[in-house]
Specification:
The chain contains 21 helices and 27 strands. Strands 16, 17, 18, 19, 20, 21, 22, 23, 24 and 25 form a 10-stranded mixed beta sheet that branches. The longest helix is centred in the last third of the chain and has 18 residues. It is globular. The protein binds adenosine-5'-diphosphate and iron/sulfur cluster (SF4). Iron/sulfur cluster (SF4) binds next to helix 2 and helix 3.
């Protein structure tokens, strides 16, 4: 089966010479393999006449075409196709009774399309995109007997109601007016307003307007609003963004409780969270913007290990060149260089908030993971080290120059990604090690012509990380680089940060809440404790394991290692391993 997809955003017929049409061999032989639209000038590609030579893909100056060959057995599994050369979706995840079903895979591969189909918002056309009267009977007949088919029978009978926690909670302030109380009261179909707002720790925010909330507060409010609805299926699209690990663990408990009586589907890129939260996981793979394929559900452990390994044996498909590997701490060989900055007994007061620190130092080539609850002064401290904030007590050896990627990147550039890169870091991104290790590794090379305003959250994050790493500085501070990135992009970003520091003998602080990300990126750990908004204390940097043990003790969670992939896994509370590890103080085990 041949798939020809036109990326509408990239295609700019006014700015090219119709290369696709001019060079297509079947067209040159008189066949109507590509027809240019009378009105728009954009190509319509016939998949049956296309010979798959790929010439149009290479000739198009705007990288607007995708031609792929897919296994023919998929043909009968097509669920939806938007248009002749539009995105298409194969197979669906199954909302299962009394389970949390996870979806693992990049964005742009049809997760929203699948959710829209499962919620009855679009009637899947099974690939017949011209059929505007597609009906549920066709969909039901096309599915084998089983849970998914039964589910669609209920969708047809309008017996299924759904609620969705949207992906981008940071867009809510632009769309919703009023206070948190107003918003939540309106959706309280289960009469659980008080219980849920307390459980989510937002009962003190009720009189605030949506515009006054931080990212983490917006996230908890949006999750609360979804939980208050009385529906059959609950979808949570990226529930963990902006939440610290305490909050993530709390959400895990709440969603699991919900699944005891309801169907729940979760899209999540923090693999430690996905792992502990879900009963079953569907991997989704394909080509961004062109097609997406859902695999049958696997057990969560199997799905994550398979995903990290990068090869789907049942489908015989490689989804990544190389496996993602977790190192034992002792495997880390990087030699740390001389001290870049050291400090002791720092104290800093900012309004009602006080920060204090122990004694510590950072070396050349060292990547320091920075962990701890939201609002305990993580970025404040690093800005003190860089001389950007003064301090009230203690000492710092010198002020090192700093390159900073904030949590929320506000850019107001009316131009392309290329222009953004040029204006921030000059031409250095175009070649050499930086181009290979950062620009290409983060997929920024594929975004160059795209307008900055049209970037998705993940794309914007990738470019921001590249810009931060591309500036000249002694210290690099990255605040939540994993936010909005999919699991694969997170691992690539972690590697890009490490490589840049090793190659240039620089040092980085990386603030993040994703334990897998922190594990891969960090040589050492700076651990914050305290109470958000009131006081924070920074200890360390410690060696990774020692730091994790301290940090996780505070969170009250233990991790073991998966015996195959060596990835960290959260233990079930009060399980045998959990109790053993607690007793021996081994919260972040490298041996179990
Ligand atoms: P995900 O939720 O995994 O990010 P989506 O289901 O939103 O993926 O989208 C997959 C692809 O489908 C997108 O790249 C987009 O090009 C295409 N798409 C989504 N909605 C429409 C639509 N209404 N019309 C045409 N194409 C669409
Ligand atoms: Fe024509 Fe298909 Fe070759 Fe493109 S890949 S030039 S559409 S034959």
């Amino acid at each position: 089966m041949r798939v020809a997809v036109l990326k509408e955003d990239n295609c700019q017929p006014k700015k090219c010479n119709d290369e696709c049409h001019a060079f297509c061999p079947p067209v040159r032989n008189g066949q109507e393999c590509i027809i240019l639209d009378d009105k728009t000038g954009k190509p319509h590609i016939s998949e049956s006449l296309c010979i798959g030579c790929g010439i149009c893909v290479n000739k198009c100056p705007h990288d607007a075409l995708i031609i792929e060959q897919l296994p023919s057995e998929l043909e009968t599994d097509m669920i939806h196709r938007y248009s002749m050369n539009g995105f298409r979706l194969f197979r669906l995840p199954t909302p299962s009774k009394e389970s949390v079903v996870g979806i693992l895979g990049p964005n742009g591969m049809g997760k929203s399309t699948a959710i829209n189909a499962l919620s009855g918002r679009i009637v899947p056309n099974l690939g017949d995109w011209m059929d505007k009267d597609a009906d549920w009977d066709g969909v039901i007949e096309s599915l084998p007997r089983g849970e998914l088919r039964d589910f669609f029978v209920a969708v047809k009978a309008e017996k299924i109601r759904v609620a969705l926690k949207p992906q981008n909670v940071d867009r809510l302030p632009k769309r919703v007016q009023g206070t948190v109380r107003d918003l939540l009261t309106k959706v309280d179909e289960r009469n659980m307003f008080q219980e849920m707002t307390e459980k989510l720790g937002i009962d003190h925010l009720l009189e605030r307007t949506i515009q006054q909330l931080s990212g983490g507060e917006l996230q908890r409010m949006a999750i609360c609003a979804t939980l208050l609805r009385d529906v059959d299926v609950y979808f949570f699209d990226e529930p963990s963004s902006y939440l610290d690990i305490h909050e993530r663990m709390r959400i895990v408990g709440i969603i699991q409780e919900l699944s005891e009586t309801k169907r729940v589907i979760v899209i999540e890129h923090d693999l430690a969270v996905l792992d502990v939260l879900c009963d079953l996981v569907h991997i989704v793979y394909g080509k961004k913007g062109a097609f997406g394929i859902f695999t049958p559900a696997r057990t969560t452990r199997q799905a994550i290990n398979t995903y990290l390994d990068g090869f789907l044996p049942e489908q015989n498909v490689r989804i990544r060149d190389k496996p993602i590997k977790f190192l034992n701490h002792s495997d880390r060989v990087a030699e740390l260089g001389s001290k870049v900055v050291s400090w002791g007994g720092l104290g800093k007061k900012l309004g009602d908030f006080t920060l204090s620190t122990g004694e510590g130092a950072v070396h050349r080539s060292e990547v320091v993971g920075v962990v701890g609850p939201n609002g305990t002064g993580k970025s404040t401290m690093i800005k003190v080290l860089a001389g950007e904030h003064d301090y009230d007590e203690g000492w710092v050896t010198s002020s090192a120059s700093i390159s900073y990627k904030p949590q929320h990147v506000d850019v107001d550039i009316d131009g392309s990604v290329q222009l953004w890169l040029d204006s921030e870091i000059g031409p250095r991104w175009r070649a050499g090690e930086f181009n290979v290790n950062v620009i290409r590794a983060l997929g920024v090379d594929e975004l160059l012509p795209k307008r900055v305003k049209k970037l998705s959250g993940g794309e914007r994050q990738a470019v921001s990380i590249a810009i931060c790493l591309g500036r000249e500085a002694d210290l690099y501070l990255l605040d939540e680089p994993s936010a909005h990135l999919d699991a694969n992009a997170r691992m690539e970003a972690a590697k890009a940060i490490r490589r840049t520091m090793e190659a240039n003998e620089k040092s980085a602080f990386v603030i993040d809440h994703d334990v897998y990300f922190i594990d891969i990126v960090s040589d050492s750990l700076l651990v914050f404790e305290g109470e958000g908004g009131s006081h924070g204390k920074a200890e360390g940097p410690f060696k990774l394991q020692e730091g994790m043990n301290r940090f996780l003790k505070g969170v009250n969670v233990t991790f073991r290692r998966d015996h195959d992939s060596k990835r960290p896994r959260i233990n079930k509370a009060a399980s045998r391993k959990d109790r053993e590890q607690r007793t021996s103080g081994d919260f972040y085990s490298f041996n179990h």
